[in-house]
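User: My collaborator sent over this chain with a note saying "see what the structure looks like." That's all I know about it. Can you take a look?
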Amino acid sequence: MSEVPKNATHLFERPTRRYHSSESWWTSFFSLLLLYRSRNDPQWTLPTYTCRSGYPVEPVPFSPGRLSPENLIVEAPLSKNTFGIACWPVEFLQLKPDVCILRSDCCRVVFIEVKTIGASIARNHTRYLQTRDHLRHLGWSADVYYLLSHGHECVDDWPLIEHDEVRVMLWEDVFQFAIDTPFGDLFDEPLAHYASRPSAPPNPPLQLAGD
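Assistant: Without extra context I'll predict from the sequence alone. Here is the result:
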């Protein structure tokens, strides 16, 4: 009997559904992998997708460039000091992006919100888009991405992502890129076991990086 394909969500719930590592643990894993891959290959890219009916389609590469702890910031609150500006809207003061790639010298910022098990994007979704638009109004290049498994359990998030045209990174791609690095050796099982591709809907056709 063939093994049922697993996605990243199956790994997030290890060792048990009721007792597993936090989202912060996985954010750290992702951010350190970003550092490692970008420093070994500054031209390295990670696919991002638009969503159609809950499926990732239309892959477009995201190139983080060469990163360092100076410009890859994890779970730090946003403020006027972040961007070197005179003031910062009060409604944005409590925002702490999971991952922030900040390049102040060229007024460029990328926010990546990480989700694993049971957490929805809905709580801060609107505020992140407002923050992005506010920074663009100030002359910054600003983007928001979500890092999700294609097995993401909060199904009401997908229509929201599609409606607002926010691009998604897939944990399954992240795992594929971790396999041939020291990060792939941190687990008792091969990461490939948790990097299955989503099933293609009849319409529209699924397009994934490498297909």
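A starting point for your reply to your collaborator: Confidence is low (pLDDT under 50) at residues 201-211.
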